[in-house]
Predict the 3D structure of the following.
Amino acid sequence: MEDVLDLYEEAYDPQYPTVCLDEKPVVLHADVQPPIPVEPGQPERADYEYERRGTRNLFVMVEPLAGWRHVEVTAQRTMQDNLNTHTPASLYETFPPAEARRILQRLEFHYTPKHGSWLNMAEIELSVFDRQCLDRRMPNQAMVEQEATAWETERNTAAMTVDWRFTTADARIKLKRLYPSISP
């Protein structure tokens, strides 16, 4: 945990950016009956019944101090699509060996601890995307991609950063139960 918190306390350096990654499955749902449109004094009304149309995966990359993010929508989860990117094997699976090695020499991995997804700023971005864009039925990948592109463009244009304030010093006080106790 402290490794990630220390990383978040570093000053922004465009030559050495911090990029956070995360993924989220999305279930595609379509209306069985068309919704009843808005009328004066009446909101749109949608039937509770829906048709399930499979799943898609959202992969988000965020550079929190630069205010940049990118969302990729994929039909499957494979090494090439970001699954298991925390291992060098995924790069060797995707690129020729020399290119994989070149990329790996430029990367430094920092892992969020088990049960510590709240430490991942990409998860924060996915939560914002979920609340702002996925609060209704999405029948197909094209609609999810359209929402992702519009959301990403809006947030990148506004250079929305993550104002992270929880520090290692805070963790040692507020989460002291997680630290080992050494008795004399």
